[in-house]
Amino acid sequence: MTANDDQRTPRASQAAQGAAAAVETLEAARAELAATTLPLAVPEVREARQWIRESLAQLDDYVIPRYRSLDAPLLAVVGGSTGAGKSTLVNALIGFPVTRAGAIRPTTRQPILLHHPLDAEWFEGQRILPGLDRIRGTVSSSPLPAHQAGAAPDAQAITSLVLVGHAAVPQGIALLDAPDVDSISDDNRRLAGQLLAAADLWVFVTTANRYADAVPWRLLLDAASRDITVAVVLDRVPAAAEEEVRTDLQAMLDRQGLAEAKLFVVPESALDGLGMLPEDSVIPLRHWLGALAADAAGRAEVARRTLNGAVKAVSVRLEGIAGAVAAQDAAAHDLRETSVVEYEQALSRILEATKDGALLRGEVLARWQDFVGTGEFFRALEQNIGRMRDRVGAFFRGEPAPAVKVETAIETGLQAVILDEAANAAENVDRRWRADAAGRELLGSDDLSGTSDGFDAKAAAAIRSWQEGLMEMIRTQGQGKRTQARWLSLGVNGLGAALMVVVFSMTAGLSGLEIGIAGGTAVVGQKLLEAVFGEDAVRRLAQQARDDLHTQCQRLLDDERERFLGRVEANNPGSGDELARFAHALRGLAGAA
Fold first, then answer.
1. What residues contact 352, with CB distance under 8 A and at least 6 apart?
2. Which end of the chain is less congested by CB atoms within 10 angstroms, N or C?
C-alpha cells in the first residue's frame, strides 16, 4: 500500500460513514413525510399535497439512491419539448437508431435507458426509479430506420423502463430518452418530470423556433434553482440564423441563472435513409459526454452538485409542508373549539333551566301539588312550621298521589330541555362548520344538524339514572338514624321528589336557599326534607344531586359532541414540528454534501 493509499483510505472511510448517516437521516425524513396527511381544505393545500408527492418521488428516485451509491454512473436524461428531436439526437450520439423517432406524437412512451454493458448492474435493480418495471431491450443486428427502432408506442407500458446496453455508450454515464415535457399525454408529462427529477444532469433539447417557450423554461428555471448541471442542445438551427439564435439563447440562460450551462448547436440537416443526423453534427456533445464519463473527479462533482441541489429543494418543500401542517392544525383547533364552545353553552343553558325554577311550571308543579295536598297543607305548614317534624307523617297517611308521577313529570320536562339544547348545539356547530372550507370537507354530505339517532332514549335513561342515584342518596342518608328511618319508611320516592323540587328551585346557590318561582311549593319540599334530615344534610343532598345531574348532562352532550370532534381527531394532521426539524437537518446535509 502506498502513502497515497494510506491517505485516501481514511478519507474514503469517512465519506462512507457520512453517506450512511445521511441515508439514515433521509430515510427518517421520508418516513415522516410519508405519514403526513393534509386532510383539511385550507388555503394552498393542493400545492402542499403536490409538494409531498414530489418530495417522496425525489427522495425515492434520486436522493436516497445516489447517497447509497455515490460512485454509480451518472444518469443523463435527455428531455425537451414535443418534436424537438430528442430521440434523433440520442440515435446520433450512439451512431445508429436505437430509440424510435418520427412525426407521430408521442413517439417516446416507454423511456429507454442506454448504458455501457459493464454498467448494467447499476440499472437492472431498483436502485433508481424503483417505481418503474425493468425490461431488457435488444439492439437489432441490422440497423432499422429510426421510425421503426426501439419500442413501439404502447400506452400500457409507460410504467416500464427499457434497458439497452451498448458499447457505444461511454462507461460511467447513461443516457435516458424521456417523454416530451409538454406531451399531449398527461401520463407522459408526469413521467418526463419524474425522470428529470431522477437525473444527475440534464441534456435539454429545444429548437431554433421554440427555445423561448414557457414550458421548457419552467423546467430550466427549476434546474437553476436546484443547481443541476445542464447541457442545452439547440436543435435544427438554420445556418443563417445560428449566430443570432445562439447569442439570444445564451443571453437568456445568463439572465436566468444558467450561465454555466453548456450550449450545443445542432445545425439543420437532412436525415439519411435511416433517419439519422450527419455524424459530425453531434460530435461536440458526444465528446463532452465522453470526457465527463472518463473523468471520475468530474463525475463526482456533477453528482455532488446535483445531489446538493436536490436535498436543498426537498428541505425547502419540507418547510412549506410543515407550514401547511401547522395551518391544518390551526384549522382543526378552530373546528374543535367551535364544537366545544357550542356544547358547553348548551350545558350551561340546561343547568340554568334546572336551577331557576323553570322546570317547576306546568305539569311538574301540578303533580307536586297533587302529591303534597291542597291548600290546607300549606295553611297548616304556615301556622305551625316549628312542629313540622312531628306532623309531617300525618300528611303521608292515607293514599296520597303517587310520587312517581312527580318523577315522571320532572323526567319529561328535563328531557325536553336536554333534547332542545342538544339539537341547538348540533345545528350551530353544523352551520359554523359548513361556513368553513375545512369543516365542509369533514362533514361532506352528512347532516349532523340534529341530535343523533336514539338520543331521546339516552337522555331519558340518563335522567332515570340520576333519579335512581338521588333515591339511593336518600336511603344512604337515612341509614342508622332511627327517627329518619321512620320517615323514610313512609316514602323514599316522596322525599326524592321533594329533593328534586328543591334542586330545581334554587336561584342563588344552596347556601342562601333562595326560592325560585315555585314559591310556597318549594318551601314545602325544603321543610319536608329538613324535618327528616336537618338543614345541613339537605344542603349537602341538594348539592350532590346538582353535581350528579351536571355529570349526567355532561356525558350526554360529550357523546353528541364526539360526532364532530371524532371527525377532527380522525383527520388530525399533527403539528408539523418533526417536518420542520427534518427540513433543518436536510439544509445542514445539503451544505455538507
1. none
2. N
pTM: 0.72
Nearest 5°: phi and psi at 206?
Answer: -140, 180
One-letter identity of residue 276: M
Q: What is the DSSP string of 110-155?
A: S-EEEE-GGGHHHHHSSSS-TTSEEEE----SSPPPTTTSSPPP-G
Q: Is 524 helix (H, G, I), strand (E, B) or coil?
A: helix
Residue that is written with C-alpha cell 300528611 in the block: 395
Q: Extract the C-alpha cell encoding 323.
A: 407550514
Task: Give the tens place of pLDDT for each residue, 326-336.
Answer: 999 999 999 99
- Cα(104)–Cα(341) distance, integer angstroms: 64
Element (H, E) at 66: helix 64-68
CA 410 – CA 364 distance, rounded (Å): 6
Find the helix or strand (DSSP H, E) in which 335 lies.
Answer: helix 296-355
- What integer pLDDT is reported at residue 490 of this predicted model? 47
Per DSSP bridges, beta strands 173-177 and 112-115 are: antiparallel
pLDDT tens, residue by residue, 456-500: 999 999 988 988 888 888 777 765 554 454 454 446 667 777 777
